[in-house]
Amino acid sequence: MAFLNKEIRDGDNQDLTEERRTATFDTDKMAEVIYGSEKLARRRREISHAVSRIPELADSRPLPFLDRFEKVTEGTRKLSVLDRHLAELIDVNDNGEALHLYHEVMGMEGHPLALHEVMFVPALIGQASDEQYEKWLGRAKRREIIGCYAQTELGHGSNLRKLETTATYTPSTQEFILHTPTITALKWWPGALGKSSNYAVVVADLIIKDKSYGPHPFIVQLRDEKTHQPLPGITVGDIGPKMAFNGGDNGYLGFDNFRIPRENLLNRHSRVEADGTYVRPPHAKIGHSAMIRVRSHMATGQGWLLGHALTIAIRYSAVRIQGFLEDKSHEVKVLDYQTQQHRLFPAIARAYAFIFCGFETIRLYDQLILDMNSNGNTSGMADLHALTSGLKSVVTHFVGQGIEQARMACGGHGYSMASYISEIYGVAIGGCTYEGENMVMLLQLARYLVKSVELVKSGKANQLGPMVAYLAVADHKVNLATGPDSYVKMFQYISKRQSWKATEKFLKFMENGDSRDVAWNKTAVELTRASRLHTRLYIMETFIRRVESVTDIPVKSALTDLLNLHLNYELLDVASYALEDGFMSSNQMDFIKNQLYSSLEKIRPNAVSLVDSFQFSDMQLRSVLGRRDGHVYQNLFDWAKSSPLNKTDVLPSVTQYLKPMMEKAKL
Ligand SMILES: CCCCC/C=C\C/C=C\C/C=C\C/C=C\C/C=C\CCCCC(=O)SCCNC(=O)CCNC(=O)[C@H](O)C(C)(C)COP(=O)(O)OP(=O)(O)OC[C@H]1O[C@@H](n2cnc3c(N)ncnc32)[C@H](O)[C@@H]1OP(=O)(O)O
Ligand SMILES: Cc1cc2nc3c(=O)[nH]c(=O)nc-3n(C[C@H](O)[C@H](O)[C@H](O)COP(=O)(O)OP(=O)(O)OC[C@H]3O[C@@H](n4cnc5c(N)ncnc54)[C@H](O)[C@@H]3O)c2cc1C
Fold this sequence. Notes:
Elements: H1 14-21, H2 27-35, H3 38-52, H4 68-89, H5 95-106, H6 114-127, H7 130-141, E1 147-150, E2 166-170, E3 175-179, E4 187-188, E5 199-208, E6 211-221, E7 234-238, E8 251-255, E9 258-261, E10 271-272, E11 278-279, H8 289-319, H9 338-375, H10 381-409, H11 411-415, H12 421-430, H13 438-457, H14 484-511, H15 516-549, H16 553-579, H17 586-603, H18 607-612, H19 618-621, H20 632-641, H21 652-666
Parallel strand pairs: 1-5, 2-5
Antiparallel strand pairs: 2-3, 3-9, 4-8, 5-6, 7-8, 10-11
Helix pairs in contact: 2-3, 3-5, 6-7, 6-8, 8-9, 8-10, 8-12, 9-10, 9-15, 9-16, 9-17, 10-12, 10-13, 10-15, 13-14, 13-15, 14-15, 14-16, 15-16, 16-17
Bound molecules: ligand LHPKVLDO and flavin-adenine dinucleotide.
Ligand LHPKVLDO is lined by residues 108, 114, 118-119, 149, 151-152, 157-161, 191, 285, 288, 291-292, 294, 297-298, 301-302, 305, 381-382, 385, 427, 434-436, 440, 444, 447.
């Protein structure tokens, strides 16, 4: 008999199988929606299956038991095995397939190519001229060279304009001299810089004839291509262990008057002529394109990370039996508790929402690049910068919260590395910092919102882009019972009110004599609130659009339940903004709460199937608690037994220190 949930197998934990039997939709069809196409969803399954038949691609030991050195070695070993099998496993020109293969095999702890693919190659694609393409891109794509993106310094990350590494042009030799003038100018943090990369895109302050032109990207060889030794004038190394990503070698880098040829300034958009004449780019911030690209991809990537943690927590919650409801002779699955559902189901809805919203944002990014490359049109940059700044901040923050709730939802075993949730958490919350610290990025979006409100105030509402048009719309009371659109209208009201209030507060400080920067700082918390609300509205709207477009009726129905939960949860979370001025009534508040509780009940039978639809393999999850077959306890015991501490019954530390202490106490 064919089941709707495709994870059912003989011999699985019965409680989990029981959950899977109640699915109201086909998990393969849901996976098509999650991954955007039938082909990618199917290929993911095929690739995972093919990988499972190559023993060398498996982790040699559970990763939590490896020390840092072993993690780096293990990641590199697997990369070399993958390299031999790449063409047989995937269509190497298909990014979706490649991304899945790397996540499956390499996990999320970092590896030598992590930044090569994510930032080095994209920076070349976005910033290199045709001649530079010719010279570097082929080599980079074939991985003859391995690169990273070296921008952040020990003393500066957020404020790019103050990067201290200099690239001084010398017309007599037609070279740039890269130099690290102070300790704080050391590049610090770039992924895969410390030990793996032999090239880097280095962002440095361009100086011509004593004049600074601000940060520009340069391609720089760091190590000898044969020996891998750092070149003379280069100091490079690993920055040490981190909260997560410990299979990766985030690094430091210093230059001692290191010379590179003039052609190494990535000069698709701006260049320096032989005589030192500077040719400006069409948009001042076009050099930030590699960052915009990653920010555009972050919502989807982070949504998947949340999906990992929730797959573990929901499956485990169906297997974990503890306490009673009505029948005192049978303990219940912890998934039956309303508090457990409230902890986990809104996060499932968010994971789906972030993935869908991310796809829409990636399309906007791709369109911008098309416009820039085909007709030099950079007019969409400011909009996309504002949007992605807010989105990366809101999504990473909520994903962190959601993963932490997933950990707590697994009780004591969630705290064990056997759950693997702490690793997922460490990786995900890195996103709150990398690609722009969240507060800093929320304030970037706030600049855009304030400008938009100022446009409306000065009678130029017709100049507003579609995403902020609501800032000019008159207020109307909302009947929430009429469906998703009414939730959007209520959210628009809240978001608009906050943007206006923050703008007016900011303007008032200036009227009272504060400088723009001081007024901005005094309003900053209110401004970040406006940015969050605006972004949550965008996420809500994209979620609605995506669900509306689904054609498979059972899938659409299950997604509608998730969407309703999301709408009520989100509105409840921000209701105080509309309650404080009476725009929302207490009756409406009760309505939202009741809708939310009834959504939890509706979702309950599909909970396991909703996370199964992510179709993460056991290899990808690396979690004893989240195993597909639900056989948690025996495997937890086996996992613990494999701890290196259990190799002997009596540890040398006991013999050497503990025993003498105890013996002394006896005297
Ligand atoms: C296939 C891709 C996959 C990607 C991975 C996706 C998801 C990961 C998900 C899961 C992870 C799983 C595994 C992880 C594996 C690997 C890890 C992946 C990636 C890690 C990479 C990390 C790399 C880095 O961190 S690189 C360093 C990043 N650094 C920053 O982001 C610095 C932040 N600061 C800035 O960006 C800028 O300083 C600034 C704050 C934006 C200010 O810029 P500045 O130039 O100073 O501007 P200024 O203040 O003068 O403003 C003037 C004006 O310009 C506007 N502006 C600024 N920037 C832009 C822009 N880019 N475009 C358009 N306009 C811009 C600014 O708003 C001002 O406008 P206005 O005057 O107000 O109108
Ligand atoms: C896992 C990881 C991977 C990374 N990979 C790379 C990489 O590959 N390449 C690379 O170049 N870099 C990389 N980075 C560095 C990263 O991009 C920076 O750390 C990040 O941009 C934050 O900058 P910062 O460290 O200077 O933070 P800071 O700016 O020092 O932040 C400290 C605090 O100051 C606040 N703050 C700073 N400025 C303002 C302001 N204007 N207004 C209000 N508050 C402010 C922040 O909100 C924060 O609370 C990575 C970082 C991590 C954690």
